[in-house]
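User: quick one, sequence for these tokens?
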């Protein structure tokens, strides 16, 4: 009887250990997935903001340099 109870106890300890390992692994995986998700969001936001700034600077430069020259160039084309 004692041997049977001891073996059942050992099986129970092994099952608890396996379950704990699976639980800890799932927590680590969910943290890793959340970290990757946030990294992707921040990366995309940075690309959007950076592209907007670069495009805005290009439009500003074009409006200061190219647009004042455009009417003169069009007038030369028509004559």
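Assistant:
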């Amino acid at each position: 009887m004692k041997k049977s109870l001891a073996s059942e106890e050992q099986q129970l300890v092994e099952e608890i250990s396996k379950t704990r390992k699976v639980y800890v692994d799932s927590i680590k995986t969910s943290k890793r997935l959340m970290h990757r998700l946030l990294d992707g969001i921040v990366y995309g936001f940075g690309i959007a903001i950076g592209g907007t700034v670069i495009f805005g600077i290009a439009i500003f430069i074009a409006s200061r340099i190219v647009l004042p020259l455009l009417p003169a160039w069009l007038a030369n084309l028509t004559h």
